[in-house]
Design a protein that fits this description.
Blueprint: E1 15-17, E2 22-29, E3 33-35, E4 38-45, E5 48-51, E6 56-58, E7 61-63, E8 65-68, E9 71-73, E10 76-78, E11 81-84, E12 89-91, E13 94-96, E14 98-101, E15 106-108, E16 111-113, H1 118-125
Parallel strand pairs: 1-3, 2-4, 3-5, 4-6, 4-7, 5-8, 6-9, 7-10, 8-11, 9-12, 10-13, 11-14, 12-15, 13-16
Length: about 130
């Protein structure tokens, strides 16, 4: 769903929790989930999770990609990218491959980046540290 410019297509949403809806429990799915209402519980999907501006999530999210425009109180794990839009708020720890935080977004927690070799990055940042 993420293209070369790291944006997602909103055309194909498999599950929608509408603005005036509240869901409590555990949700497992294969496709894309969009939350514009309130969700209390844990989400585990093989696709993407999109949290709209009015969306509120209390619980953990595990997905391929996550876009947050609303608020999340819980931990987020992505296989690819987490994007926090300007109205987005995340209170919790995140475990991601890629993180995009727009101006005005709020993130409070611990961030762990995966699939990145620390020694390779240090060498790239400071080539003088390489051994001859």
């Amino acid at each position: 769903m993420f293209g070369k410019n790291n944006t997602t297509s909103h055309e194909k949403v498999d599950t929608l929790i509408g603005k005036n809806s509240k869901f409590e429990g555990k949700l497992n799915a294969d496709g894309t989930i969009r939350i514009d209402g309130e969700f209390v519980g844990n989400i585990s999907v093989k696709g993407d999770v999109i949290l709209g501006k009015e969306g509120k999530m209390v619980g953990d999210i595990s997905a391929m990609n996550v876009i947050v425009s609303g608020s999340v109180e819980g931990n987020i794990t992505t296989e690819n990218q987490l994007k926090l839009n300007p109205s987005g708020k995340v209170i919790g720890d995140i475990h991601v491959s890629s993180l995009v935080v727009e101006d005005q977004a709020l993130f409070e927690g611990k961030c762990t980046m995966k699939n990145i070799s620390t020694s390779d990055n240090v060498s790239k940042l400071n080539p003088k540290n390489k051994e001859a």
